[in-house]
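Quick start: what a row looks like.
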Amino acid sequence: MTLICQRKDIYLHLEKIKRQQIMEMSQESQTQGNTQGQQQPQPQQPVNQGEDNTVAVIAYITLIGFIIALIMHNNNKTKLGAFHLREMLGLIIFSVGLWIVSLIPFIGFLLYVIGGIGLFVMWILGLINAVNKEMKPLPLIGNIFQKWFATTF
């Protein structure tokens, strides 16, 4: 007797599930029928996940690389390329300033060595940011360069 009651409970449960599925299907078909007359919103164009970083990376490869990057940037302007060109222009000017300071006897040499190490670290950080397609300003001096050369590229 208990076996018959259990089968009946299972049967009733399965019938309940079938009815729920039928109701869900009918609701879906009604919502599709209502939206067929209306225009579906167009999916948005995918956002540019990252710009080409060729110009940004080449800008950090010596003065000749900077000049090549300038020429390439004139053909295909990108925000990433312009950002790193400004950073590298600042580093180039900083290195020229260090060279001028090095002409001062003794103190100039010490400042040149300390500044040269700092310049090398900044150059490495800028190159890493360019390879990673990041527009993070260099520590201490990056924001200054971006302000000075904001309209340059």
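That is the whole record. The chain has two domains: 1-29, 54-148. Residues 54-148 form one domain.
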